[in-house]
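ingest -> fold -> write
write: protein_1
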Amino acid sequence: MEGQTLVQVHPTSNEQDDPLALAHRILEIFEEKQAEDLLLLDMRPVTLIADYFLISTTTSARQSRAVIDEVATRIKQEMGTHPLGIHGHPESGWVIMDYGSVVVHVFDPERRAYYDLEGLWADAPVVVRVA
């Protein structure tokens, strides 16, 4: 229509609409921030909770905070999305970033061993493991 501008309120792109692309981008940011023992699980065959779980270990509350802040900032800038919620505190040893289709777990080593999400979800296929 002449004289009208079409504004797309929710721009779409393959990355924004693809949970796996989102999970991979978050994983890359975790690698840049030197998070350890990264594990990306495909949850689709085993639960409706989320499409993917990204499980990581950080060595301090300070590193956890840095990773979480960096992911939230860069994913919003690059992909136009933000977490539906961030639960927990770096000092508690476990933080969850909920992106709906992708749930990110940031553990300290003790909490990761205690909760053993890898064991709990052992039937979920491994997409990526970075030791």
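write: protein_2
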Amino acid sequence: MAVQDVYNMDGEKVSEIDLADEIFNVPIKQHVLHEVVTMQMVNRRAGTAAAKGRSEVRGGGQKPYRQKGTGRARAGSRRSPLWRGGGVVFGPKPRNYAYKVPKKVRRQALRMALTSKRQNKTLIVVDSLDFETIKTKHFVEVMAALKAREALIIIDRKLENLELSSRNVPHVKVLRSEGLNVYDILKFKHLILLEPSVKQLAARLLP
């Protein structure tokens, strides 16, 4: 097992914690991370884009002009895709883009993302982030002490004061351990784990 330093809110080392190699020290495969992140991004698509075809556009019931004698190409409707204001050929329709990657692949990608943070030395474990009051200034001071500006903070339970203190700080996101995902881990430069959340991740990701 790897040993990781544990810090307090003042940025001081207070203890150490063992990190399971099965979670924080696995081979990283870029194509697996890419596949899972792509799935997450696609599943967020609204799929509401729409365009009207020639049968849906208003008008077009009357032939614009006679068939012969005008010198122009024959036309049967003003709603033809060739005409201004006409329908769209093979235009987008509302659809669901979502698809699923196997659960084992998703879990393995999560382990790889956590491993990448540890290997890049951007993983920070904190013993506690209990705020007595809602104070954005105090939160910013704690982040400065931990030397983490762009950070994803993983908590083990609802910490309302922390969540409200951080919501106006840019490039910071507070997430509960059950919502941890590959995209958010890779998006933020630092990953801050509360010490109890490490145990929750172990229970979730260990085979």
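write: annotation protein_2
Residues 47-96 form one domain.
The first strand starts at residue 2 and ends at 7.
pipeline exit 0
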